[in-house]
Design a protein that fits this description.
The complex is a heterodimer.
Chain A: H1 2-9, H2 30-59, H3 63-66, H4 83-91, H5 94-126, H6 131-142, H7 150-159, H8 166-172, H9 174-191, H10 194-202, H11 207-218, H12 220-236, H13 239-244, H14 253-261, H15 269-289, H16 291-303
Helix pairs in contact in A: 2-15, 4-15, 5-6, 5-8, 5-9, 5-12, 6-9, 9-12, 10-11, 12-16, 14-15
Chain B: H1 18-24, H2 26-55, H3 72-78, H4 81-112, H5 119-126, H6 128-131, H7 134-144, H8 151-159, H9 173-201, H10 205-213, H11 218-246, H12 250-255, H13 267-277, H14 281-290, H15 292-313
Helix pairs in contact in B: 4-9, 4-11, 9-11, 11-15, 13-14
The chains are: A mainly alpha, B mainly alpha.
Protein name (chain B): Sugar ABC transporter permease
Main location (chain B): membrane
Transmembrane segments (chain B): 28-57, 86-112, 124-145, 185-204, 225-246, 285-306
Chain lengths: 304, 318
């Protein structure tokens, strides 16, 4: 049967090495595999990562190298320097921006998690009439993009006297975090056996005790997924922070790099890239610890 | 877990206080549980959505409340070539970027679905463009597209010698438009690829084996097995992608700010420019409201895809 399959596929030049690897189907010759699989994959990885490499290279190059491609090979750093990073940390308000961004992201994440856990529990476990419609409405809320909300929200923020305050961001970020987290947590709660809660009910636990002692401990992976995802989304948020914050010291990192570091006609590319690199680092580190949670929350939210 | 107010467990069960009983009364509990989420979403999502539609029919400016002017804003926009250019570019940007993202993303997902060494590492690396703040990677693209020091130009002109002059990526209309689309595709591939990979992994390998025994070609296996089984998840991911590409703001704002001569404005950036930077809130709101029909269309698409999925798999929703 193996021979018949190989003949059908027509690739027979380097079939021998695959014979001892059971997981490779026999039409997969090695040479073919390199051309069809590894080469495109390498190109994909190269293209997807190159901007980061370029960012890092630019951030640590002295200005002399940065603008002289004739004498120095632009792909490599000849004499690395921390000048741009030093300038960024000590001559701009960068640490302050990092702190603001961190505060806003953490507060918005906790606020959203709190609201989402309760809402997801109510929709999935308390089961009232119309609970599926509430779930659907929350899902639809996720489809409302910030781009059509920022103008009316700006007027609201002005009226509430929150303009230029990080509180405005903490209160508005949940508009896109809560729908996502709720949707994710509904899926997680669904996977917890209802029998556990029934047992607890028979034992006389109250609903809130059940939520705190049984459902939440079992949903910890879901909570982590939702939490890190919310943190990343709030860290990356741009349009609200651009529209609601004016004073330099209250700006978040993405906004401040674009509005404070880009000044005049001559762009300080070294400092800009150092700022982008440092601004990406927290989420990148965070991400490297929780890759699997990111993947599961990303795919989980879509699959639900 | 914290051990705070709730009555502790003991042999003789203590009679719970009226507060505990109130919180165990289901209707009350439902209201309390839904209150934070529904409250937040009503105040900061539903109300602004309505307010935005209302603003579009007034002449509000920043710091001055407006009065009803009917369709004046829309009538003005109808006459405005910049608005039509933004509508055209939004649709064009979404169409081209979506096709690019899904073609490349599906290809990448199919590659990743093979048996690979370091698979989880590769998957982790591939998600990077999606994790990093868009504005920051957009700034990197801005630098890559620099007219004088673009690394792409350097490779083409000085290393490969394929061209005489450096590329002018952002200086004129169409190159700038396609440069932005390329950056958007770059950012969107990981999301599409990882989601579709999750879909691919649910397809049972036995289907492929059966098709193989029946003599199906690779192309037939792809079109008759992979695509139909991937369709439900593809439809959902595509809806999300279309909505968030159409309303994209960050990439364009960071790289070109709508230039050169307003040719790369998307509707969202034009709304920002008119509404916030130009202080004409009502006009900005009118532009933002004009996006809603497109979004409703995409949402309906999502809804019917979901319904179809349920019907296909024959399972109840919960």
């Amino acid at each position: 049967m193996t021979d018949a399959l190989a003949a059908a596929s027509g690739a027979d030049s380097a079939r021998a090495p695959t014979a001892d690897k059971p997981e490779l189907l026999s039409w997969d010759s090695r040479a073919r595999r390199v051309v069809v699989l590894y080469l495109p994959l390498a190109v994909f990885v190269f293209v997807l990562l190159f901007p980061f490499y370029w960012m890092a290279v630019t951030a640590f190059k002295p200005n002399a190298e940065l603008y002289d491609y004739k004498t120095y090979n632009p792909f490599w750093i000849h004499s690395p320097t921390l000048d741009h990073v030093r300038k960024l940390l000590f001559e701009t308000a960068y640490p302050r921006w990092l702190l603001t961004t961190m505060t806003v992201a953490v507060c918005a994440t906790f606020l959203s998690l709190f609201a989402s856990v309760l809402a997801a529990y109510a929709v999935q476990r308390l089961r009232f009439r119309g609970s599926t419609y509430v779930g659907l409405a929350i899902y639809l809320a996720y489809l409302v993009p910030p781009s059509i909300l920022f103008i009316p929200l700006a007027t609201m923020v002005h009226q509430l006297g929150l303009f230029d305050s990080p509180l405005a961001l903490i209160l508005t970020y949940p508009t896109f975090l809560v729908p996502f987290c709720t949707w994710l947590l509904i899926g997680y709660f669904k996977s917890i056996p209802y029998e556990l809660e029934e047992c607890a009910l028979i034992d006389g636990a109250t609903r809130l005790q059940i939520l705190r002692r049984i459902t939440l401990p079992l949903a910890v992976p879901g909570l982590i997924s939702a939490g890190i995802f919310s943190f990343t989304l709030s860290w990356n948020e741009f349009i609200y922070a651009l529209a609601f914050i004016q004073s330099s010291e209250n700006k978040t990192v993405p906004v401040s790099i674009l509005t404070e570091l880009v000044s005049g006609d001559v762009y300080q590319w070294g400092a800009l890239m150092a700022g982008s690199l440092l601004g990406s680092l927290p989420v990148a580190i965070f991400y490297s610890f929780f890759v699997d949670y990111y993947v599961s929350s990303l795919t989980g939210a879509v699959k639900e | 877990m914290s051990v705070t107010a709730a009555p502790s467990w003991s042999h003789t069960r203590p009679q719970p206080g009226w507060l505990a009983r109130l919180f165990d009364w289901k209707p009350f509990l439902i209201v309390v549980c839904l209150l934070p989420a529904v409250g937040l979403l009503t105040v900061f999502l539903t109300y602004p959505l309505g307010l935005g539609v209302w603003l579009a029919f007034t002449d509000t400016k920043i710091g001055r409340s407006g009065r009803w002017v009917g369709l004046e804003n829309f009538a003005y926009l109808m006459e405005d070539p910049t608005f039509w250019s933004a509508v055209f570019y939004s649709v064009f940007y979404t169409a081209v970027a979506t096709v690019g993202k899904f073609a490349l993303g599906l290809w990448l997902a199919l590659l990743l679905n093979n048996h690979l060494p370091f698979k989880s590492l590769i998957r982790a690396i591939i998600l990077m463009p999606w994790i990093v703040p868009t504005v920051l990677s957009a700034i990197a693209f801005w630098w890559i597209y620099d007219p004088q020091f673009s690394i792409i130009s350097y490779v083409f002109v000085d290393v490969l010698g394929l061209r005489e002059r450096y590329f002018d990526f952002l200086g004129s209309t169409w190159p700038a438009r396609f440069s932005l689309i390329a950056a958007n595709i770059w950012r969107g591939i990981p999301f599409v690829a990882i989601c579709l990979l999750a879909g691919l992994q649910t397809i049972s390998p036995s289907l492929y084996e059966a098709a193989l025994l029946d003599g199906a070609t690779p192309w037939q296996r792809f079109t008759r097995i992979t695509v139909p089984l991937l369709m439900p998840i593809l439809a959902i991911v595509m809806t999300f992608s279309i909505i968030f590409t159409f309303t994209d703001f960050q990439l364009v704002y960071a790289i070109t700010r709508g230039g050169p001569v307003n040719s790369t404005h998307l509707m969202a950036t034009l709304a920002f420019q008119r509404g916030i930077a130009g202080q004409e809130l009502a006009e900005g709101a009118a532009i933002a409201v004009s996006m809603i029909p497109f979004l409703v269309f995409a949402t309906l698409f999502s809804y019917f895809a979901l319904a179809r999925r349920k019907w296909q798999q024959g399972e109840s929703n919960d």
